[in-house]
């Protein structure tokens, strides 16, 4: 079995809002998300809080910021994910080999993030309201946590886009029925309307009523 190490940091603004609650819940949910796959996640709660230059949840929102490795000049970033890669290269020496996740705060906006390689960023809004040990939930906190798991998945899942819909990693999701409702596994959160009727494993995909119905475990297709 492969053991995948995931470092979890939070922004200073998120810490000011709810302490380490979101970090610690994210660590717990990440470690319990791997029951259907042949690898296991070892999520590590990092003590540093990160002074992120922006808390926007949309990974494609551009901004200007001081270059982390040389504060004497400002550069333009396409998204917070690109800034996080620069920041970790010169400001942190306790990175993990498989994924390094930064969770930010953006009050009132559910979800948002980006991941790939060994870096990921995600908005942690409303995750503090979730109960550890849950397998299913719905609403803003569930959606935000689903995106947290999805961005970690983008660091660790690498599949071909066999159906050509542009969503190779996202197509490793599946739907799960619970209490007469359909829930979606993390890799499909926010993409359920864009996916075809089968996942990458050829399993029929039944779209849930809403992206905010989330099952917090990766599907077995996400190998």
Topology (SSEs and partners):
Blueprint: E1 2-11, H1 12-18, H2 21-31, E2 39-50, E3 63-66, E4 74-77, H3 80-91, E5 99-104, E6 113-116, E7 119-123, E8 136-138, H4 140-156, E9 175-178, E10 181-184, E11 213-215
Parallel strand pairs: 1-2, 1-5, 5-7
Antiparallel strand pairs: 3-4, 6-7, 8-11, 9-10
Q: Can you offer a commentary on this structure?
A:
- With 223 residues, the protein is α/β, with parallel strands linked by helices.
- It has a domain at 3-155: Collagenase (Catalytic Domain).
- Helices cover 21% and strands 26% of the residues.
- It has helices at residues 12-18, 21-31, 80-91, 140-156, and strands spanning 2-11, 39-50, 63-66, 74-77, 99-104, 113-116, 119-123, 136-138, 175-178, 181-184, 213-215.
- It has a 5-stranded mixed sheet with strand order 2-1-5-7-6, sandwiched between helices. A two-stranded antiparallel ribbon has the order 3-4.
- The chain is globular, with a radius of gyration of 17 Å.
- The N and C termini lie close together (12 Å).
- The model has no long low-confidence stretch (mean pLDDT 91).
Structure in a nutshell:
With about 220 residues, the protein is an alpha/beta fold.
* Side-by-side strand order of the widest sheet: 2-1-5-7-6
Give average pLDDT, whole number.
91
Q: What general form does the structure show?
A: globular
Total beta strands: 11
Contiguous helical run count = 4
| Main beta-sheet strand count, sense and barrel state | 5 strands, mixed
| Share of residues in strands | 25-35%
Query: Can you tell me the CATH topology of the domain at 3-155?
Result: Collagenase (Catalytic Domain)
């Amino acid at each position: 079995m492969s053991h995948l190490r995931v470092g979890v940091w939070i922004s200073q603004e998120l810490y000011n809002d709810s302490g380490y609650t979101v970090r610690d819940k994210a660590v717990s949910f990440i470690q319990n998300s791997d029951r259907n796959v042949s690898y296991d996640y070892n999520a590590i709660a990092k003590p540093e809080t990160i002074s992120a230059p922006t808390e926007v949840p949309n990974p494609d929102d551009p901004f200007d910021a001081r270059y982390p490795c040389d504060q004497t000049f400002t550069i333009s970033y396409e998204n917070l994910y690109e800034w996080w890669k620069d920041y970790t290269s010169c400001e942190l020496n306790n990175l993990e080999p498989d994924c390094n996740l930064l969770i930010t705060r953006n009050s009132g906006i559910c979800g948002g993030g980006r991941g790939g390689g060994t870096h990921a960023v995600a908005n942690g809004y409303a995750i503090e309201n979730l109960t550890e040990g849950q397998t299913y939930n719905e609403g803003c906190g569930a959606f935000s946590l689903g995106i947290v798991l999805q961005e970690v998945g983008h660091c660790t899942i690498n599949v071909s886009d066999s159906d050509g819909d542009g969503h190779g990693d996202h197509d490793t999701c599946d739907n799960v029925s619970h209490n007469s409702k359909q829930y979606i596994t993390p890799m499909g959160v926010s993409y359920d309307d864009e996916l075809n009727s089968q996942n990458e494993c050829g399993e029929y995909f039944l779209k849930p009523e809403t992206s905010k119905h989330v099952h917090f475990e990766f599907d077995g297709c996400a190998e």
